[in-house]
Structure formats: structure tokens, C-alpha cells
Design goal:
The chain is of the alpha+beta class and about 90 residues long. Helices cover about 15% and strands about 35% of the residues.
Length: about 90
């Protein structure tokens, strides 16, 4: 499948180790779908059609994985350590 313009309701998450690979998340309210597609350059390699009702489970799984994968940092004497969050561009 060749690349098509992303719908207005979409987000792209780049692969950390392979810059040409990305996960595209698009919403299709007319079809009642959230589509996750993996792109390698301008080629879609696979898709997953997600029921919007299942999205909270996916978010929870991603959050749990991110917490488990995060490096453990000692707390500062003055309280909890906070990190920065970068806005997507």
C-alpha cells in the first residue's frame, strides 16, 4: 500500500531506532474506527482497526509499559522529581 495524505484527525509517532518507520493514528468517526497503521517510509506495512471503545485499554497498556520502562530516579530531598514533556510538532 502506498502513502496517502493523512486525514485531518491524525497523529504520527516516529520509531526511536528507525526514523523512516512510524505509527500513524487516524480517527474515522464516520466508520466508528480508530486506525493504527505502521509505515516504513511511504509504504503502509500493516494496520489495526480499533473500536473506539477499546482505546482506553490501549492507552492503559501504553501507560503501564511506559512506567515499567522508565529509568528509576531517586527522589530529590525537596520532593518528587518532575520531568519535562515536549509538545508534538
Amino acid at each position: 500500500m502506498r502513502v496517502v495524505p493523512a486525514p485531518a484527525r491524525s497523529a504520527v509517532v516516529r520509531d526511536r531506532d528507525r526514523p523512516a518507520r512510524a505509527l500513524r493514528v487516524t480517527t474515522h468517526p464516520d466508520a466508528g474506527l480508530v486506525v493504527l497503521s505502521v509505515w516504513d517510509g511511504d509504504v503502509c506495512t500493516t494496520t489495526l482497526r480499533l473500536d473506539p471503545e477499546d482505546a482506553p485499554d490501549l492507552v492503559r497498556a501504553l501507560t503501564d509499559a511506559a512506567v515499567a520502562a522508565a529509568p528509576r530516579r531517586p527522589r530529590s530531598p525537596g520532593g518528587p522529581v518532575t520531568g519535562g514533556v515536549a509538545a508534538a510538532s
